[in-house]
Amino acid sequence: MLTLRQLFLNNNAQTTNFPLLLEFERAGGVYMYDSEGKRYIDLISGIGVSNLGHGNPKVISAIKDQVDKYMHLMVYGEYVQTPQVRFAGKLISILPDNLQSVYFTNSGAEAVEGALKLAKRFTGRQQIVAFHNSYHGSTHGALSVMGNEDFKQAYRPLLPGVNFISLNNYDDLQLITDKTACVIIETVQGEAGIRVPDVAYMQALRNRCTETGTLLILDEIQAAFGRTGKLFAFEHFDIVPDILLLAKALGGGMPVGAFIASTAIMSALKENPILGHITTFGGHPVCCAAGLAALEVLLNEQLVEKVAAKETLIRQHLIHPAIKEIRGKGLMLALEFESFDLNKKIIDTCIANGVITDWFLHCSNAMRLAPPLIITNEEIISACRVITEAIETNTSF
Ligand code: PLP
User: Is 397 a residue whose pLDDT tops 80?
Assistant: First the structure.
């Protein structure tokens, strides 16, 4: 009989020739357990999803309650569905005044698609400005604004009229003009290997968008919900977007995304033609119930307030001459090594020793550190010890 691993390789689509092939049977808190009962600490949170760790009881109970009431009823936006209404209301209550209208999607990439369409419709303009080394998802629109040619060239033609600019380059801001529908930027760049823009630059970008009537889209799909030490990453920069993109941790482990704008901007989707963005499963009631419960846990347990101290602890316990730099904010960190080769060896040793981490799509010589926000000080210290030992094993310092 074929093993589960063989069946996975035979029957499930593969996106590389070198999948990790770890077989997890269950997960709880910051730990995941494989089929042989081995425990792994999760330092990547399923790429920024499991902010509350795995299996939070309040999230699970909200899911069960909603499943008992109803699951899918109708394509998005027609029926009044309690979990969607309550979740949107809670999100609006913690967001700036101009972000009052929530469009729920299935995923981050779909939120990106919706936001790009909305910006074009609202401004009547066609050009888009995006950033080198950005990542916004894998669908055609999202690929069009991805700042890495290697991942997209095979899929051309993509959206026309996209110009790329560099983070913190003030001269480039001149490429934003009264022909630009929107600028899309990750508030903190994730797959670039965690790049935090300068505060003054983000404010200049905001001003340039306002000056030219261009909508500023902040992609916080990876950075929101406390990951950087603020509830929303834009709070670090004292700016507010015209459109905010959320996903990943938004659903508390369930798949849901959102693009959020003012009612005036969002209204552009209602006319000429009607139904400007259609989604069947976007804002699924079970996902919204889970997301609302997760947000309440995040706020009630004041998890965001504790993130900065955890960052400091990580920085104190990861000091080694082979580490070239620790970049990032809060629990969204990149540990940079000299080469991909070294990084990969260290990551493999970490995984073998029960610490799950990985590298970044556009920065293969850096290791990702994005644990659930609930990670304790003891867990941080013990995980840092495993990483340091893995560095020692693979270097001759
Ligand atoms: N935007 C950012 C910043 C991301 O990190 C990601 C996913 O990694 C996406 C968009 C796409 O989200 P999804 O994978 O849910 O489509």
Answer: no
Measure 221 CA to ligand 1 centroid, in angstroms.
Answer: 6
What is the rounded CA–CA span in Å between residue 287 and residue 257? 10
Same domain as 253, residue 193: yes
Range of the domain at 213: 57-300
**For ligand 1, atom 15: residue with the closest CA:** 108
Say yes or no: 153 and 274 in one domain.
yes
The answer to whether 232 touches 246, Cβ cutoff 8 Å, is no
d(CA 33, CA 263) in angstroms, rounded, equals 45
321-376 pLDDT, tens digit per residue, is: 999 999 999 999 999 999 999 999 999 999 999 999 999 999 999 999 999 999 99
Give the atom of ligand 1 at the shortest distance from the alpha carbon of 189. Answer: 3
| Beta strands 101-105 and 332-336, pairing class | unpaired
Give the C-alpha distances (Å, rounded to integers) separating 25 from 35, 38, 40, 163.
Answer: 6, 10, 12, 45
Ligand 1 is surrounded, with C-beta below 6 A, by 47, 107-109, 112, 135-137, 186, 190, 219, 221-222, 247
Q: Are 27 and 356 in contact (CB under 8 A)?
A: no
Q: What is the dihedral of CA 315, 380, 186, 343, to 10 degrees?
A: 70
**Element (H or E) spanning 130, and its range?**
strand 127-131
Element of type H or E holding 328? strand 325-329
Please tell me whether residue 348 adopts helix, strand or coil conformation: helix
Q: Which of 105, 314, 109 is nearest to 222 (CA)?
A: 109
> Is 3 a member of any domain?
no
Does residue 5 fall inside a structural domain? Answer: no
Residue 101 neighbours by CB under 8 Å, 6+ apart: 260, 261, 262, 263, 265, 266
| Structural domains of the chain, count | 2
Q: How far apart are the first and last CA of the chain?
A: 47
